[in-house]
């Protein structure tokens, strides 16, 4: 089903999640989430641990656990992909994912070059010299200039930051209109975190980004707007500058305090 155009230009948003509910083993964990990401917008989905960020991201990516019950709708570029696995979505509704653990996302036994070749062949039909040029170009885009060495390396021969750069290159390889990055900097040291955030900003210049994080400071460095989740419900959706200066919900205020203190957020209602 094609949704009605959302923007004034008459184009469907890159992502429209409406009334999303997710239940696992009969337990409702996401309750009617609504969020929208326009064409080249970068939006943070933010909340404390357990607030439902990853389940929402998984519903968008089509990677919910088997048996999860989904309600409401997920539209990517106007295409209804609710409950559809990635392989059952048309190319126009492709979503690229970057996870929090690059070591888990990459095949440890296969050289980076071969892993990068897969989406370039499958989604863009590249072969031979064109494939080689695109691989080197993608690695340069993510700041890996020693492309010959990186392409020949297995993931274990790279640093954690280099592995995450490879994952971002993989996400860009399919030219999906929407990138969903679920806590992609969590496993990295502070300096590498800042580099990966800068890279994501640059790499998603022409792409929509849904950036999942518990850290409002990281979100502010990358995104213009944030959707705040609490116990599976959206409690606030506003420009990040407004969230920082004038949080409307207690949970947002807790995230602001945590960002200012450089610490992890304490869920609202916690007694310690
Ligand atoms: N496969 C699953 N089976 C059962 N419960 C789950 C499953 N995945 C998540 N949950 C539960 O759903 C709730 C939301 O989890 P989710 O992973 O979406 O939170 P999150 O905001 O991404 O947290 P974190 O920041 O810690 O990753 C939590 O209570 C979690 O325990």
Automatic annotation (TrEMBL):
Lineage: Bacteria, Bacillati, Actinomycetota, Actinomycetes, Geodermatophilales
Topology in the lipid bilayer: Peripheral membrane protein
Protein name: ABC transporter ATP-binding protein
Pfam family membership, one: ABC_tran
GO MF entry, a single one: ATP binding
CDD domains: ABC_NikE_OppD_transporters
Family: Belongs to the ABC transporter superfamily.
Domain ABC transporter stretches: 15-256
Keywords: ATP-binding, Cell inner membrane, Cell membrane, Membrane, Nucleotide-binding, Translocase, Transport
Location relative to the cell: Cell membrane
Annotated source species: Modestobacter marinus
């Amino acid at each position: 089903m094609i949704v009605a155009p959302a923007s004034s230009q008459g184009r469907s948003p890159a992502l429209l999640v409406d009334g999303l509910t997710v239940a696992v083993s009969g337990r409702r964990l996401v309750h009617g989430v609504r969020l929208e990401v326009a064409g080249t917008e970068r939006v943070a989905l933010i909340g404390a641990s357990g607030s439902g960020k990853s389940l929402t991201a998984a519903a968008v990516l089509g990677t919910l656990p088997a048996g999860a019950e989904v309600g409401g709708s997920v539209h990517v570029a106007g295409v209804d992909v609710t409950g559809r696995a990635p392989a059952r979505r048309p190319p126009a509704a492709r979503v690229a994912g970057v996870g929090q653990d690059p070591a888990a996302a990459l095949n440890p036994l296969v050289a980076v070059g071969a892993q990068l070749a897969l989406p370039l062949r499958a989604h863009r039909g590249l072969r031979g010299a064109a494939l080689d040029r695109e691989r080197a170009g993608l690695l340069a885009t993510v700041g890996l200039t020693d492309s010959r060495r990186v392409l020949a390396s297995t993931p274990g021969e790279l640093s954690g930051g280099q592995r995450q750069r490879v994952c971002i290159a993989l996400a860009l390889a399919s030219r999906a209109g929407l990138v969903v990055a679920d806590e992609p900097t969590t496993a990295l040291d502070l300096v590498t975190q800042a580099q990966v955030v800068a890279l994501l900003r640059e790499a998603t210049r022409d792409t929509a980004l849904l950036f999942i994080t518990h850290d409002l400071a990281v979100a502010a460095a990358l995104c213009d707007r944030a959707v705040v989740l609490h116990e599976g419900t959206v409690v606030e959706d506003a420009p990040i500058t407004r969230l920082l200066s004038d949080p409307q919900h207690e949970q947002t205020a807790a995230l602001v305090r945590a960002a200012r203190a450089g610490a992890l957020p304490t869920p609202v209602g916690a007694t310690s």
